[in-house]
Design a protein that fits this description.
Blueprint (H helix, E strand, L loop, with lengths): L1 H21 L1 H36 L5 H55 L5 H34 L1 H4 L2 H10 L1 H11 L2 H43 L4 H11 L6 H14 L3 H27 L7 H43 L1
Helix pairs in contact: 2-3, 2-6, 3-6, 8-9, 8-11, 8-12, 9-10, 10-11
């Protein structure tokens, strides 16, 4: 009897999901509107989550909370603002220079593909065809990534005015954190309060150190990469350092994704420059994997590498680069939720 009840429940869930997907033309625009409205609040909540331990540390030293937040804001947003003031003009100049160099880079690329085509012409027909197919697939993949990157940048620029609200929203979240916790506490049913606190504590323990540490490591790697490439005489060092640092947030695959643009651009200069750039990236990733991440991030997630890789593949398939970035934190929260659910059902 239990088997038939469970089977019926599963069938009802499948039918419900089917009708939800059939009605996606109705609810998808509403969902997009909700996501657009909530995005500044989500980003502000993320910033507040990152800065909250520091605010609490300063506040416990006898400094009023509002003043502690203001001090951190001056350092945090002041540093970001100064970096943007100094870095954005250089970044725009490098982007403009790269745009002017695109025809030359395209000619170099076509020269490579022609050379590969000529060298593989005498190979068996199937192997030659497979090489050409691989080249076309790589071109399509790079074109898709470039399109997504341009679309993302345009979306961010179009929403610039909305994102100006983020610091103010984050300020009030940090200032009224205790009141917000009490409101959530009052809205939560009594029987779930204790379990809810334990769940959030475990999520914060598993995820908080990972996110803060990972962001610090990525910023450090990106800055050192830009400086190293500039010293080596590589073109567009700030732009490439930004890409290397940003993609480094993706475990395992991020360094490879970040290395591709640097390697391709270095190859158009000379084989020697390509070797230097690849050597810099290899040394940085060795330093990050063997020194920085174990020291700063540690093993806070307590997840097997195979689970992390599987989550990255799924995230990439569902939402591209953004999906790969949020895949690991999502799986970490899901793991904590599953453990708590198993513990709850085992005791009842």
């Amino acid at each position: 009897m239990r088997f038939f009840i469970r089977l019926t429940k599963m069938l009802l869930v499948v039918i419900l999901l089917y009708f939800i997907m059939r009605l996606r033309d109705f609810w998808l625009p509403i969902l997009r509107l909700i996501v657009t409205v909530l995005t500044p609040f989500i980003i502000a909540a993320f910033i507040a989550y990152l800065l909250h331990p520091l605010v609490e540390y300063i506040h416990k030293r006898g400094i009023p909370r509002a003043l502690a937040i203001l001090m951190i804001y001056i350092v945090f947003f002041g540093g970001v603002g100064y970096g943007a003031y100094k870095g954005i003009p250089v970044l725009l100049d490098q982007l403009q220079e790269l745009t002017k160099s695109l025809p030359m880079l395209a000619d170099t690329y076509h020269g490579w593909t022609t050379k590969i085509h000529d060298q593989t012409a005498k190979w068996p027909k199937e192997m030659h065809k497979r090489v050409e197919t691989s080249i076309l697939e790589v071109e399509a993949l790079l074109g898709l990534w470039l399109t997504k990157a341009v679309t993302s940048v345009k979306s961010i620029l179009n929403s610039a005015m909305v994102f100006l609200l983020v610091p103010f929203i984050a300020f009030y979240m940090l200032k009224d954190m205790d009141e917000m916790k009490q409101a959530v506490w009052r809205l939560t049913p009594k029987k779930w309060r204790k379990e809810g606190i334990e769940f959030l504590k475990d999520v914060d323990e598993s995820l908080g150190n990972y996110i803060r540490g990972q962001l610090f490591v990525c910023t450090l790697i990106g800055g050192v990469a830009a400086l190293s490439l500039w010293i080596a005489g590589m073109n567009y060092p700030l732009l490439l350092g930004l890409i290397i640092g940003a993609t480094n947030v993706i475990p395992y695959f991020g360094p490879i994704i970040g290395a591709i643009p640097a390697a391709l651009l270095a190859a158009t200069i000379s084989a020697k420059m390509m070797m230097i750039v690849m050597g810099i990236i290899f040394l940085l990733q060795f330093l990050e994997g063997n020194v920085l991440s174990p020291l700063i991030v540690g093993k806070s997630l307590h997840m097997h590498p195979l689970i992390i890789m599987l989550s990255l593949f799924l995230g990439g398939e569902l939402a591209g680069i953004v999906g790969m970035i949020i895949a690991v934190p999502f799986v970490a929260v899901l793991k904590v939720a599953v453990l708590h659910a198993r513990e709850r059902f085992s005791t009842h």
